[in-house]
Amino acid sequence: MINNIKCFMKLMKKKDKLLLLLVSLVLMIIICVLFYYREYSMTSIEDLRVLRNDGIEGIRFFYMLQDANYMIWLFLLITLIIPNLISDEFLKFRINHFDNFIINRMSYNRYFRDTVIFNMLITFIYIMIVDIVLLIVIHLFYFPISLSKLYSLSEPLQYGNIITNNAAINIVLYVIMSSFGYSLYSSFIYSLQTFIHNTYLYKACGVIISIILYLFPTIFSVIILNYTHMTFLSKLIYYLALPCLITPGIAYNVALNMNYLEFYIGALCLYFILIYIFMKVKRYTQYGNL
Q1: 9 touches 3 (CB < 8 A)
Q2: Which residues lie closer than 8 Å to 154 by C-beta, 6 or more apart?
């Protein structure tokens, strides 16, 4: 596996991949700046001075930036980037039949395992870098973040209360759990190569599917709950809502009356099942009984 990971790492060193990473980070910083001016342009200088000194507003700002209901552009940009990080290269392998050469050298199971792990690992690291960069930008240029104040905060924040009410622990948990959620979404997109064989369509499918998973599960879960009162089915459908997976402690549905952690765990389980099914289909449609 280590040798395969090293080979896949060479793909990340391609100029177009490095440029993609650099440009995406710059665009996310620009989105952060625009969001700041949108939210605080009408705030008085005195009030801004108070907010900058409280040591907590920076975390609130970060959570609002992550919330697609407040800032849809960051959500769309990240989901656009995800299939273009590395999994699009695996689709090119399939189209060029280069994957057959690799599979003959090892086995389908090893190739499948290594590509899935590497795809998830790259996505996890990328999202962690994005979150850390955004936190640094917020801390240095807008609202200094005080971990001591977060740790001693007596009341929970509006966002990010995943497991505990401690804001300092929750921000660490959020970055880790969000990064893992995005990596699972990346695997879900990768599994859709079973049905998508055009590279250009695949490159755009991340953002297209994210819009579908952002809107429809929420709408249909509410409709089912209101008209059939089938709470379990409504919950099951809402677990498909992408924010449940990628923004733990932020995504919430008042009508379903569940805690934040239940939304996240439910989404994890459902996406794991879907990925497993799609990957099984991918194996037998593309590689037979290898």
Answers
A1: no
A2: none
Q: How many residues does the chain have?
A: 290
Pick from 3-7, 79-83, 93-97, 149-153: least confident: 3-7
> What would the two tokens of residue 135 be?
């936190």
Residue 125 tokens, joined: 């690291």
| Measured torsion, CA atoms of residues 237, 243, 249, 252, in degrees rounded to the nearest 10 | -50
Q: d(Cα 32, Cα 139) in Å, to the nearest integer?
A: 12
Per-residue pLDDT band for 288 (boundaries 50, 70, 90) equals low
27-30 CB contacts, 8 Å cutoff, 24+ apart: 27/77, 28/74, 28/77, 28/78, 28/130, 28/133, 28/134, 29/133, 29/134, 29/137
- Start-to-end CA span in the chain (Å): 18
Closest CA to 20 of 83, 96, 95, 94: 83
Decide if pLDDT at 64 tops 80: yes
Angle at 49 between CA 46 and CA 52, to 5 degrees: 155
Q: How much is the pTM?
A: 0.91
Rounded to the nearest angstrom, the gap between the alpha carbon of residue 12 and the centroid of all alpha carbons in its chain is 19
Q: Are 185 and 82 in contact (CB under 8 A)?
A: yes
Residue 250 CA to residue 274 CA, distance in Å, equals 23
Quick one: pLDDT band at residue 154, thresholds 50, 70, 90? low
For residues 46 and 174, is the Cβ–Cβ distance under 8 A?
no
Could you tell me if residue 257 is left (phi over 0), alpha (psi between -120 and 50 degrees) or otherwise beta?
Answer: left
DSSP letter for each residue of 145-188:
--HHHHHT-SS--SS--SS-S-HHHHHHHHHHHHHHHHHHHHHH
